[in-house]
Amino acid sequence: MSTRQRLSWAVLNLDLEAEATKIANKLREMTANVLHKRGLVVAISGGIDSSASIALAVRAVGKERVYALVLPERDSSEDSSLRGVALAKHLGVRYEVQDIAPALVGIGCYKWRDEAIRRAIPEYGEGWRMNIVISGGTEGRFNHFKLIAVGPSGERREERLNLQDYLQIVAATNFKQRLRKTLEYFHADRLNYAVVGTPNRLEYDQGFFVKNGDGSADVKPIAHLYKSQVYALARHLGLPERITSAVPTTDTYSLPQGQDEFYFALPYQQMDLALWARNHDVSASELGEVLQISTEKAQFIYDDIEAKRRTTQYLHRPPVLMEEIIELHLQV
Q1: How far apart, in whole angstroms, are the C-alpha atoms of residue 177 and residue 173?
Q2: Backbone angles phi, psi at 283, to 5 degrees
Q3: CATH assignment of 12-106+174-264?
Q4: pLDDT digits over 111-157, tens only?
Q5: Could you give the CA distance from residue 49 to residue 197 in angstroms, rounded to a whole number?
Q6: Domain boundaries, the chain
Q7: pLDDT digits (tens, 9 = 90+) for 24-56
């Protein structure tokens, strides 16, 4: 008979000081003795994950050996950049703010995106704002994506995206994450530092990152922590309240957008518990009882978790070699 504790919100509780110490010690050891780097570069968005990651980096190697980057573009929330700068000052680290919009214009990010949007909404243009929302998975149907656009006079349009246009919009916006990573590695190379990746467990497990964009890093200190745990750890580390109370957003499209609207089946607190439950073989009926949803909907959420794992598995894969290079086995 299983001795597993009954599912409750308490399963996500951590000994926060012990966890912070463990991560900082491992991060210090990896930076110096495995990666052979002098310090750490962290791109900070003002969100909880990058904020907790840079605070742990400071605890690991000291503020003198942490370099922060704030990298806004034309669709970024102004408050995100302000929070990022405030955090860098709070931690006492060196930082740089660089607007990446001109480079994105040059590479065609906005042009390719807007071309696909106008195929769905021909009147889309100057002064319009947009985002993409996900639909279907929590009802047991195939996930599909809808384009939401609001015009300068407040007119609202909603259109289901066909696959071609959805992929082009996402491919274009992925330029943002890949360009940011290029700048992170420039400064890492310049300083002989390592790059810190900032995904939490929910994002890492469910493939909510861009390959060779925000998914690229030398070390990922919080990828084992559920987002609720990251919030708790950030509060424990004494980060400013304006950061620890911020609602998670994608900060990718011009209309405000929660991560659950774009990708996840539920708000992060409930999604954390659902993922934990799935990882510990908790029945759909027990999950439904705790989340106060039907067993059927809980099963749809489990199915959606597994579907995202299947469809994003390639994001975790290293380049495929035609033959194994046995002389280059790496040890951690």
Answers
A1: 8
A2: -70, 155
A3: 3.40.50.620
A4: 999 999 999 999 999 999 999 887 765 555 567 888 999 999 999 99
A5: 9
A6: 12-106+174-264, 109-167, 266-313
A7: 999 999 999 999 999 999 999 999 999 999 999
